[in-house]
Amino acid sequence: MSQLVSIITPLYNSEAFIIQTIHSVLQQSYTNWELVLIDDCSTDNTITIVNNFIAGNNQIKLIKNKENQGAAVSRNKGVMAAKGDYIAFLDADDLWKPKKLEKQIAFMQDQGCEVCFCSYEQIDEKGKPLNKLIKALPVLTYKKYLKSNYIVNLTGIYNAKKLGKVKAPNLRKRQDWLLWLKAIELSGKPAKSLEESLALYRVRDNSISSNKLELLKHNYWVYKKGLSFSTTKSIYYMLIFLYEHFFIKSKQTITLRKK
Known about the structure:
259 residues, alpha/beta, Spore Coat Polysaccharide Biosynthesis Protein SpsA, Chain A, eleven-stranded mixed β-sheet, 11 strands, 37% helix
C-alpha cells in the first residue's frame, strides 16, 4: 500500500448522501488514500457534515469554490490538488464496496495497465438494491469507447504517475466520458476491467440520465464540442452511439435475483 490514491468527489447540496459516501471510503481495506472534496457553493448542511469528518481524519481535505462553477471545474480542481500516484473518482451520492481500491490497484499493477474500471450495481435514492448489475467489458479500446460511455465515473482509476493529471473539458454533462477517452489515448493501450462488481451507483429520479432526450443532446455535444468533430461527423457518431447503446451495451445489464 505504498502508493497513494487520490479520490476526487465534487459536492453540491449533498447532505442526503455524503455521509454514506465518505463512510464507504473510510471502510476501504486499502488505507493509503486521500479524499479530496470540492464544494461548489452548497446551501445546505454539506459543509458542516464534511467538517465533522475532517476534524477526525487528516486524509480528508476540502476545497471550497468561491462561486458555483459546475462538476467539471470542481473535478479538475480536485485533480490539480491531488497528490496521489493514482486518481479515482467518486460522486457524492455513490458508494464503493470495501475492497474496491485494494482489488483495482492490485489488478492494475499485475496487468500493467494505466486505466482500469470495474462492474457495478445500481441502487435507488434510498440505497435499496435495484437488482441490476452492469458488467464491465474485459478490454476497452479507444475506438470502442468512442462509440459509447463504457466507464461509469465511480468505477474508474488512472495512473497519474504515468499519464499525468488528466482533466475533463468544461461541458455541463458527460465530461467524464471525455476524461476517460483522453486517459486511454494517453496510455496508448486499451483500458482493462476487473469484472467483479465493486461499486454501487445511485439512480436518482431527477438525474439527467433519466431523461433520454436530454442525455442524447449531451452525448451529441461530446462529439461536437468535446472532440471538435464536424456536424456531419458528430451526427454519424450519434447514429453509431444509438446502435451501440441499444443493441450492444444493453446486453451488459444483468438482472440479479432478489435476496
